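EI: anyone free to look at a 355-residue chain?
SC: sure, send it
EI:
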Amino acid sequence: MKIAYTGTIFYNQKYGGISRYFTEVVKRIDVNAKIIAPLSKNIYLKNVNKDKKYSISFNRLPQYNFLKELNYYFSKKIIKSFRPDIVHETYYSEKIKDYNQYKKIISVYDLIHEKFNNEFYRKKDKKKQNIIDYADHFICISNQTKKDFIEFYEIPEEKVSVVYLGGDHLKNDLIIKKNKIINEPYILYTGSKRKYKNFEILINSLPKLKNKDISLVCFGGEKLNNNELLENKSDIKIIQIYGDDKILINLIDNSLCFINTSLYEGFSIPNIESLFLKCPLICSNISVFKEICGSAALYFDPKSSDDLANCIDEIISNSDLRKNIITQGVNRSKIFTWDNCTKKTLEVYNKVIED
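SC: here you go
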């Protein structure tokens, strides 16, 4: 079996959950699989063996049309010479229509653009619909994503499989046991602060905390703007940090709790990272988080800053609850490994080839 992964996401994404997903699967899958990314700026792809990729790495790649076309020109030639059984499109490229001689799979991560079209300045995208029409099969990363995808695009259920992602790329043995990056006690938030991420609910909860001797650390994402800082009417300090996986591991490992305030997600790798690293998880009580995390998290009403503040105070002060959430998290995390993800992905490939 030969699998070709398109370079779409590796041209567009320097780092992030989607490109991590594909690199982790390719590193493990026991078939002739290659990432075809002639031009790439992706950090994770650098750690993939040469026999698993066709790629030249750049520190940055401007979004120029001629570069995209050049990338596609070489991709098409390489895929043609590779002669795969399946082309796995990594992120909704309209070029998928040019691979009609192969079976085509698209991974569906969420329907954020469709559900929050005002935020992303788009409605139901005809271009995306056309791309979807060319695919033979779809892999959704949660049952909730599958449900949303089928309802929105009216896809036959037999054309959709669910494969959970992993979260064990941040191993405990990678933690550098040196000085803490942040010496004072802190709670942790990671990633984007777009409106659907509901970050303002966390800011609004800070003045309501009983425990004032903590900081809020924000790792990555957009830089905090003056409005967000002004909205913090508490004495709790907000610290923003950028860095690599080693920095992230250190921050998760030493935080009082990890907080995810999202109103909608397709899966959430950060939640699983926290479970693996034995960091108590507090997250909004949306359906996909309950599907993925089960009893391994403390849930709050994403419309209530009071509820979030109560959860933070409780996880900090109640040692029995803290230990129970951590234990539940370790047990739950065993489901979400990249080995399991790769195994399930291979099962989908075999099914698609047999159909």
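EI: The chain has 15 helices and 13 strands.
SC: 👍
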